[in-house]
Specification:
Length: 319
């Protein structure tokens, strides 16, 4: 066990990023096709192939998921993942060729770094080629490279965030992991203590409660669609698509426990849930536990972040 999502059998992760432009993408590969569901809660999402994951639709499994910066431009990265998988002989056999199934979600990081440089097809290909079962790097890597939080007091008073991952093993052999790129408009807090780790800052750098800021000025300083937290929860369970969608829905509780506010008009929060099909387990149990593990991954994303783009991180200032 390495404590990240790659502890789940059949799940591989690869990152690629541009540290000068401050953007990147993360690919979660399934060694064998995995049943997948999705739940979109934010009102400013950027996604690809999510309709396919509705239980009423035909395809039952996916080959990879791509999480990317770059706003809608970053959806191009998923095409590179498809190219990589096609070259490896992986995809849905249509009888006329292989079509890799690669749902994707993006976050907005154009406000930090160089907004003219976004994740590309080539970057997606590179991230897929790097996918492995090793410990997942966290912080300013992959889709977390340009992630920020706490923009309610204006972007100049925001803080750097990143990508985080966590996993746990349970009695009976159930393994659950999560990976999340945290790019919220609000603050991030420890679920047990309520201590704010990162969020909007005042003029002297003190971290503020988002709720206190909202009471004073609402969202007047925040352009719409400039945020979004995206992630994946995965287990080694045998799932139906309906169960996977329910797990994705329940996993959002982990965001609600750690990010305030969440699921706003300014966020496009999207979570995928994957099942790699090794053991029988209750979808309700997996959903409840996934929320706990996702909450841990959110905290790890913020704590692993380093200052970048002129913004401080959790480890560089005192709350």
């Amino acid at each position: 066990m390495n404590g990240t999502i790659t502890d789940v059998p059949g799940i591989l992760v690869g990152h690629a990023e541009d540290n000068e432009a401050l953007t990147g993408c993360t690919v979660i590969l399934a060694e064998r096709p995995a049943v997948c569901g999705v739940d979109v809660r934010g009102s400013a999402p950027g996604t690809r192939e999510t309709d396919l994951l509705d239980p009423i639709n035909l395809v039952n499994s996916v080959h990879a998921i791509c999480l990317s910066g770059g706003s809608a431009y970053g959806l191009d990265a998923a095409s590179g993942v498809m190219q990589y998988l096609e070259e490896k002989g992986v995809g849905l056999d249509t009888g006329f060729g292989l079509v890799p199934i690669v749902p994707a979600a993006v976050l907005f990081d154009l406000s930090v770094g160089n907004p003219r440089i976004r994740p590309t097809r080539e970057m997606g290909y590179l991230a897929a080629s790097r996918a492995s079962r090793q410990l997942v790097p966290e912080g300013n890597v992959g889709a977390g490279t340009g992630a920020t939080v706490g923009k309610l007091n204006g972007f100049a008073h925001a803080m750097k965030s990143g990508i985080g991952s966590a996993s746990r093993k349970y009695p009976g052999g159930l393994l659950i992991g999560a990976i999340v790129a945290v790019n919220a408009v609000g603050h991030v807090q420890e679920p047990d203590t309520g201590r704010i780790l990162a969020g909007p800052r005042d003029e002297d750098g003190t971290i503020l409660s988002s709720l206190n800021v909202m009471q004073k000025q609402a969202f007047s300083l925040i352009p719409p669609g400039t945020n979004t937290t995206i992630g994946v929860v995965a287990s080694n369970a045998i799932l139906t698509k309906a169960e996977a969608n329910k797990i994705a829905q329940m996993a959002h509780d982990g965001l609600a426990r750690t990010i305030c506010p969440i699921h706003t008009m300014y966020d496009g929060d999207t979570l995928f849930a994957m099942g790699t099909g090794q053991i029988e387990a209750s979808a309700d149990v997996i959903g409840a536990l996934s929320a706990e593990i996702l909450a841990e991954a959110v905290i790890r994303a913020v704590r692993a972040a380093k200052p970048a783009g002129g913004l401080p991180s959790c480890d560089s200032i005192k709350s």
